[in-house]
């Protein structure tokens, strides 16, 4: 069981969708995905758990927010443009 935390800020929906697809195609353990939208110009809307900062706080704060909301002890922190092969 693992909590995957992904900060997001104006990267574009295609990047995060590709990252999510890559994760779903690769991860074979029970997991949750937490995306923290760090006050993007256009709020990110996806199925799943998206937490939005009302003010831009930076990537470190976005990771902290995700960690605080994680339900599992094992954490995997990645960028929104990461791909797994």
From TrEMBL:
Domain Glycosyltransferase 2-like: 3-82
InterPro entries the record matches: Glyco_trans_2-like, Nucleotide-diphossugar_trans
Gene source species: marine sediment metagenome
Protein name (database record): Glycosyltransferase 2-like domain-containing protein
């Amino acid at each position: 069981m693992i909590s995957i935390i992904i900060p997001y800020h104006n990267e574009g929906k295609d990047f995060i969708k590709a990252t999510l697809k890559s994760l779903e195609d690769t991860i074979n353990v029970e997991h949750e995905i937490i995306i923290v939208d760090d006050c993007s110009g256009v709020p990110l809307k996806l199925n799943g758990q998206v937490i939005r900062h009302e003010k831009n706080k930076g990537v470190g704060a976005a990771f902290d927010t995700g960690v605080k909301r994680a339900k599992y002890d094992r954490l995997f922190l990645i960028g929104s443009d990461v791909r797994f092969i």
